């Protein structure tokens, strides 16, 4: 199935401008064009956009995403894997940091639940 740029934007959750930007900087290969010269995105294109969105959501910098995207073809699998392994380590570290923050918030919230009204006034 193919999708016009507006449909691809809606399905991917990205704006039309972002789709064009990703194409311009090499994150996505230029999509096919229909008989009128308009971009025509495939299901495979949308899957790639979904993956890119997950990389962005996890905090991967655009420059790393570009490096990963430019590694296409046979013989580059090890480098692609290494980029993802390193990024996973960063994500796990951030998750641990956020979990520590959440633990602190939960502790504070629980402490307010056990306070008497007089203690609350001084907290």
From TrEMBL:
Q: Which organism is it from?
A: Actinocrispum wychmicini
Entry annotated with the keyword Acyltransferase: no
Name of this protein:
DNA-binding transcriptional MerR regulator
* Iron-sulfur among keywords: no
Q: Which UniProt keywords apply?
A: DNA-binding
Q: Which SMART domains match?
A: HTH_MERR
Which CDD domains does the UniProt entry name for this protein? HTH_YyaN
Matching entries from InterPro entries are given as: DNA-bd_dom_put_sf, MerR-type_HTH_dom, MerR_fam
Q: Name one Pfam family in it.
A: MerR_1
Origin, by domain of life?
Bacteria
What are the protein's GO molecular function terms? DNA binding; DNA-binding transcription factor activity
List residues of the HTH merR-type domain: 2-71
